[in-house]
Design a protein that fits this description.
alpha+beta; Elongation Factor Tu (Ef-tu), domain 3; six-stranded mixed sheet; 13 helices; 31 strands
Length: about 600
Amino acid sequence: MDTAHIRNFSIIAHIDHGKTTLSDRLLHRTGTISDRDMQEQLLDSMDLERERGITIKAHPVTMLYQAKNGETYELNLIDTPGHVDFSYEVSRSLSACEGALLIVDAAQGVEAQTVANVHLAMKQNLTIIPVINKIDLPHADVAQTRSQLEEILAIPGDTAIPASAKEGIGIDEILEAIVARIPAPRPTGAASLQALCFDSYFDTYKGVVTHVRIFNGQARAGAQVKLLHTGRSYEIKEVGSFNPRPYVRPQLEVGETGYITANIKSPKEVKMGDTFTDARTPSPALPGFQEIHPMVYSGIYPINTADYEHLKTNLAKLQLNDSAFVYQSESSVALGFGFRCGFLGLLHMEIVQERLRREYNMDIIATYPSVVYRVRLAGGELKEVDNPAFLPEAHSIEEIQEPTVHAFILCPNEYIGDMMALVSEKRGILDQTETLDTRRVMLTCVLPLNEILIDFHDRIKSLTRGYGSMDYEHGGYQASDMVKLDMLVNGEPVDAFSCIVHRAKAEARGRALAAKLKEVIPRQQFAIAIQAAIGGKIIARETVSSYRKDVTAKCYGGDISRKRKLLEKQKEGKKRMKAIGQVNIPQQAFIEVLKA
């Protein structure tokens, strides 16, 4: 199709503002999906996405739409995730588009992630079409949402299209606006093919299937192409698009999105943001994506050590589908061989672990999540530490710097006190408060990243009855009083339970871990001491009491000295056993503690 009749667009929104429902409606209205095949969350192909009602992966789909002017247009939509952890998926999708539909919930208004996604779209110079969704709800406030668009995002409120994806209201107006407002793609003018790889997945029969957007030239089966990052050449076996299932096309032309298969066998050969070009007359590379740096690290180990190679293969396949995920092999005394994995955030970590369990049938155990600390040594050298086991000795450390985030919390006015209390509890500093409208305020604060890892998002939701939302961006490092907390079982440190914590919170954390370990470590013939220590100082202790082997059971009656003699003998035995006895912590105990 000629480029004048092609439109490439994305859908961006805060999580749960209705973008997946809208994409379902667009597919149905353009006839891409028949009534028989229609179902809820059509583009969310993973079970996880359906269960949680969130989008995890960007999904491309090609629709043909006959506009009111009688012309037929090819609309290429990429449905994107809304959660802050997956903003990397959003930025990749936007690089393949000329425009974006910005969806705002009429009942909730502009939220934290809406602002972040709009800034991403503006950075790429995309045309933004605002859509006010869910106008059928009884408490929808369209006028208020229009004024928020103008005040917070500087988007003219009168350009917004009122719609309800659930009821099918405003769908035709949205399609007409896409055709009228979003510009047609223009070729770059290079000598030959330029195709941007913005996503990929692994197919057992076809190898690596790359999602591409053609910026120049055309791609067809049989053509010789080259990936510029690796410099390797391939022959294209098949090109096609998605509707939403993949279908073969004779060729992909300028402005079109689709997929290319070229017998690429190893996931390592394709890098996200790479450019496909003609092997004989190569064109320059397209601007790719910035390298993404993981912020949260956790160890992933197979429960059965024989599954190590199997886990390694599956992590490579998963990384192909999720390029923000990184891993490297490591070993632990307690857990055997496994991998140190990096994630963008806690939801990202949870999703990766769940996908390994479901899609690849892996039985895995994950260690407590940690962040990357910078350690300045006495000699002035700066060292990055993502695992407590690699923290240098305390006497050689000058200072430890921890990563911080700039958090933007939107909440109703009446909960501002609760939010400020939560921020100070998490060692945060409040920078400013800004009144957005009559009902809501935005708090800007600086927080240590490791404090918001576990329950911060859940606490915001529960304190604000579900009306609060949060977005964050990384804000550099700051020096902090961090210490390494070791857990000793019978005097031996257990590396799997070590962590780096702030000195003020170390005692509480040590007590909690010791109490949990007391529950799960089985009793022995001798008493076991469980201790939390900072360096040589013990800050918390629990004791697993020994079995009472009742040696006096056979003494009924008789002189007391007989009983005392037996008890003294038992006492000697227990003393010797304690000196040489070892405590084997069962695998199940590790799993229980790490879950908690």
